[in-house]
Structure formats: structure tokens, C-alpha cells
């Protein structure tokens, strides 16, 4: 007990020191610009801001327009950063810009580390799991470009005592029915080697019958597996759970009666994935459709009721089974640090012109065009009886209102003991919290730990 208290005390001291470093580095960046010879630092700041605004506006014209305007937007988006670099080089202010940029980078890094240590990430504690006696695994040989065959998953699973149901890509099967039949025949574990959409369907059957669920990371993106801390590079390691496993309980999302493990998308992305050409040419299809979806008069806009609060006229909505750390986490390898908070993450976007795109680029999550919040229930309407929806990447049409909710702790997930795990999340920089952490009273230095069911924010309120 004393050791734990000492560890927390030391972590608090380190967090306080890092917070002060972040504040000093930010002040240093500003001082460098203010004290640059001849006021040149102010020109650097103004040029950087102008370049950012032009880049965002050019990018908007590129994705939301066609023809000459699209070409002009591409030129502006490319010319803006190039022009900034040419300006600071030819004006002799490159050293000022470099020192200021380094200071801001140090401020950002130390600020995130300070907030990370002040609110340490506590991963969910697993419990010991007994070895399943009659495990049944459903495998899609096409998923992930053929990972099932490449990693010899069928033989490895059968060698460990599992019964494998291998799907036939030429004859699509009802995986929900297959899972139900497996449970009826005595299966005491269900597992899937496939994409997140297939994972969700079988997970719902496992949750309904209170049997453990095994995720095998043989899909293309494997977001659910990644957020469970599994090895996405070697799906065969997931099979170790059959002989040396431990169990956690996680939440399961529900969208109008259909389960989801990751995200439900409405609006622009959901419209794009409906196109038959999307799977073969994602970038080209998106660029062809986005002008009509973003800027055309009369295009569908979304309204949402978020725990009783109205979110109006959105171009895109993303509902996630548990929230991401920040909107930035949605790009690339974004993660959800917990899958057991009992909440939905909600992100709404409304950007209708180049000026609003520039404001979003400058202000980030504080821009009025971006809403980040959490909720327990979301109802989405779009002025039509049915609207397109992308559920874990699968294109569907659902009747309005489309209702999203979460079933806390509904799913028992069996995990291998030896797995990469989920790294501690890097929280976004919040300067008010950093100042409080650096110079506030001792009892206020450590932000309260997030509980399993924290009070959610209202739409429009920016979550830290």
C-alpha cells in the first residue's frame, strides 16, 4: 500500500514538472516570435496562420468542388505551405521559425505526458478463464487478404481442440444463424476470424447466450482487436487464448437492433460506401461523390437527439462503441483506451464552406463546426424514411429514427495472456488543466479519474 502511494506521489511530482516544462516551452515559443529582430517574429506567426488558413480553404475547394475550382483548390493547398517555407527562407527568418516550432513541439509533448501521468491509464483488469471444452470458430478465408490460409489458422485451431466453420465466399452464409446453431449444439465459446462486421454479428449471439467470445485478428483493419490489445500482425497468437486465456467484459453497441463493436457512420461517409465502385476505387469514388454530398443545395442533412439534446443539420455523424480520446484519433491508428465505460462516443461535423473549413483548421475541437461529446442514447433522423448507414464499415439502409445505444458489459471476451496490450492514451493538450497542474494547489494537481460511467457532456460542449 505504501509503495503504491509512493508511486502515485512520484508520478504527481513528475506530472507537475512536465506541466511546468510545457508552460515554459510555450512561453518560450511566444517570446522568440515577439523578440525577433525588427518584429520579424510577428511576420512568421502571421505567415504561418495565413498559410494554415489558405491550406484549409484550398483543401475544401478540392474536395467540395469540381473542374477549374477543384484544380485551383489543389494549387492553393500545395502553394500555401510552400509559400510559407519560401517566405521564411528568403526573409532570413527561418531560424526564428525553427526555434519557435521546436518550442511548440516540446510544449505539446511535455504537456501530453504531464496529463498522461496526472491521470494514469488503468487498463481493465481481466479475470482468470477456464479452458473451453467445445469452442467453435467461424473463419472467413477471404478476410484480410487471405490471412486465414496464410497463417494456417484452421489447422492450428483444430489442433487446439476447436471446431472450425469455414465460410464459402461464393455462397454467403448467415453467420448469426451459424453461431446460433453452434450454441444449440453445445458450444461453450464462439470465435471469429474475419472483419469487424462479422465479429459484431457473432459477438451478439455470444452475449445473448452468455458464452465467451474469441476475437481472431484476421480482418483488414481489426479495430476491435486493436482496442482489445491483440496482435494484429500475427492472428495465430489470438488462438493461445484457447489454452492460456483470461477474460474481460466489454460493451456492445446496438444500432436499431443490429450489433456493432466499433463505429456507426451517418452522412457523407455512409453515402460514399453505398456506391458499388467504392470497394474497387475508394479515393476516386470519394472525390467524385463529395462535391454533391458537401456543397450541393438540398443535400441531406442529419439531425440527432443526443441524450435529449438536439444536434442539428450535421453533414456527418460518427457514433462509436466507447469514445476515442479525441477526433484526431479517428485518423490512422486511433484507439479507444477503454471498451467498458458504458458510453457512446459522438462526433458531429458541419462544414459548409471554405471559411468554416479554415476556422476548423485554426481552432480545432473548439470550432463550432465540430461537436465532440458522449452519450448513452442517440437518435438520428435525415428527413427520409430510410437513410444510408455504415455499421462497422458495412453499407446498410436503416429506417428512421435510427437509434444507437450501448449494452454495458454485455460481452465476455476471451484474450490470450501474452498479448501486446493497449498503450496508455495521449490526451489532447488542455492549457487550463496544465496551468492548474503546474501551479495550482496540491489537491487540484491530479484530475479526477474517469469512472466507468462518467457524467456525459451535452452536444456542443467540447470534451477534454
From TrEMBL:
<feature type="transmembrane region" description="Helical">
    <location>
        <begin position="43"/>
        <end position="64"/>
    </location>
</feature>
<keyword id="KW-0418">Kinase</keyword>
<feature type="compositionally biased region" description="Basic residues">
    <location>
        <begin position="117"/>
        <end position="133"/>
    </location>
</feature>
<dbReference type="Pfam" id="PF00781">
    <property type="entry name" value="DAGK_cat"/>
</dbReference>
<feature type="transmembrane region" description="Helical">
    <location>
        <begin position="94"/>
        <end position="115"/>
    </location>
</feature>
<dbReference type="InterPro" id="IPR017438">
    <property type="entry name" value="ATP-NAD_kinase_N"/>
</dbReference>
<dbReference type="InterPro" id="IPR016064">
    <property type="entry name" value="NAD/diacylglycerol_kinase_sf"/>
</dbReference>
<feature type="region of interest" description="Disordered">
    <location>
        <begin position="440"/>
        <end position="464"/>
    </location>
</feature>
<protein>
    <submittedName>
        <fullName>Diacylglycerol kinase</fullName>
    </submittedName>
</protein>
<feature type="region of interest" description="Disordered">
    <location>
        <begin position="117"/>
        <end position="136"/>
    </location>
</feature>
<feature type="transmembrane region" description="Helical">
    <location>
        <begin position="71"/>
        <end position="88"/>
    </location>
</feature>
<feature type="transmembrane region" description="Helical">
    <location>
        <begin position="17"/>
        <end position="37"/>
    </location>
</feature>
<keyword id="KW-0472">Membrane</keyword>
<feature type="domain" description="DAGKc">
    <location>
        <begin position="130"/>
        <end position="259"/>
    </location>
</feature>
<keyword id="KW-0808">Transferase</keyword>
<keyword id="KW-1133">Transmembrane helix</keyword>
<dbReference type="GO" id="GO:0016301">
    <property type="term" value="F:kinase activity"/>
</dbReference>
<dbReference type="InterPro" id="IPR001206">
    <property type="entry name" value="Diacylglycerol_kinase_cat_dom"/>
</dbReference>
<keyword id="KW-0812">Transmembrane</keyword>
